[in-house]
Amino acid sequence: MTTPHSSMSFYELLGVPRSADVDQIKRAYRANMAAYHPDVNPAPNATRLTALLNEAWETLSDPTKRATYDSSLDSHRADAYSTPHRPAPEPTQHEPPASPRTLATKLKAWAKGLVLIAVGVWFVILGDKPGPDYNGWFVFLFWVCVLSGAYTIAKATKR
């Protein structure tokens, strides 16, 4: 069975002719549920397919709902032949949803940046003081740590 499309009827979904009786529909429903239930089928669309199969069974097993559904199918097909063909709309480019790790990644980057800044401040506080042995090495390390931390935070915020 292929992935169900919005244009696929319940009859096509179950794999039965439109003239099928309730027993044929029940057998087809049970066979499809046995094959495509999410507990048995690991496919990503198994849950959606199961919901569609349940909806098809609920509609086609009730004579009143089935008559209403059949009449809507007839009117839909009549409209499809009487209206001019419109081209399908262009698919829009959507940004993929953010992964759940995005926030964790940003928090880790922020933490790393703040640690770098704290280490830089530590270099200034505990580092060498101006005097005869002063060489500015700790001031250099301070700026390296502070700028690296700021860059890390800015990069994480930009993502």
Tag the structure with descriptive keywords.
single chain, 159 residues, mainly alpha, Helix Hairpins, 2 domains, 6 helices, rod-shaped
Describe the protein's architecture and organization.
This protein has 159 residues and is mainly α. The protein folds into two domains: 10-82, DnaJ domain (Helix Hairpins, Orthogonal Bundle); 101-158. Helices cover 65% and strands 0% of the residues. It is built from six helices and no strands. Helix 2 (22-36) packs antiparallel against helix 3 (46-61), helix 3 (46-61) crosses helix 4 (63-82) and helix 5 packs antiparallel against helix 6. The longest helix is centred in the last third of the chain and has 26 residues, at 101-126. The radius of gyration is 32 Å and the shape is rod-shaped. The model has no long low-confidence stretch (mean pLDDT 77).
